[in-house]
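Entry 0007
Protein: DUF4806 domain-containing protein
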Amino acid sequence: MCIVKFLDDENSVAVVPNKWILEDGWCVWPPYEINPQKILRAVKQGQIPTKPDDWKRCKIEVVHHYEIIIHENLQNSDRWKKSAYSESEADASNRCLRKRGSVTTAEGLKCGKMALLNYTSPPTSLDGSKRCQTVMQKPMPASSESASASIAGDQNVEAPYVVESNRDSVTYLFPQPIEKSQSGFQREVIIVLSDIKLRLSRLESAVATKKLTHSATDWDDEEFALLPARCDEDLQEIFGKVQRDKHFKKKLVARFGSIGGRKPSLHVNSILSDLLTDELAVEAVKEYKKTPSVITKDEVNSFIQTWLRHAKDRIQAKAKSDNLTSHCQDENDSNNIDGADSEDLF
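Output (structure tokens):
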């Protein structure tokens, strides 16, 4: 896996298999923009394009290889374990030296600033881990600050501490370079970037679908003035117009198709609410039971029966809501009148 940055779009970053990366900084991308799940599945499986001409070619820049990140994570983990073990050995050695009456750390530092004689990167052991290295320091004039500046200015190395000190030399233990384990952070970045990429793909597909779907305002014309039907005559007129006028039938189907819903039951309820009023639904319950159903799906038929059966409940709930609204409005009006009278008194 690789983290790549698409040069055509500076804000676009993705995780792609190595098989998709071509020479000269090019990458192929699957033609599944409207199906993010297929893109995610193709990335996980490292799908090889069967028809390369159908895949999109993009100019990219490789940011990092995922295998390198895993390797660095393992190295950093082993390195920190060895460092902790070395520090415990150094503490034990320091305690032994102090028992022998050696000069303390503070006294050793008073001898003058030290010059680094030999410092190399920590050697690599057979198991791939890096151990700390002990180097020797000799005193030099206090006016020279090159060694201290080089040690303090290096942001990748911790400040050395004294293991043993006397009048002739000072032994320093240089810890490993501060290479904080970034692999965990990088892994989190990869996960977040993948999630962002997937969400963007879903958003793009949703926007594309919305562009193809007519909005509700497109259907507010005179042809649908009878919707929702308030009586049986309005309903019969709509049915007759559907049978006579193919253009009206197509527009009516598109109107109902644009009505959404998280579940099929909500979708059916929204269509029925757009087609019938609750008062007409109460009258249509008996007729619907008598007439043989032409609906092929039993689930949809059950949704329609449930919606018609609860028409009275919706009417009662609407009446209660209207009464409560009018009651609150009357209270507000009375409060406004009382407030005006109190202002007149003053």
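Curator remark: Residues 102-181 form one domain. The chain has three domains: 2-69+186-211, 102-181, 213-309.
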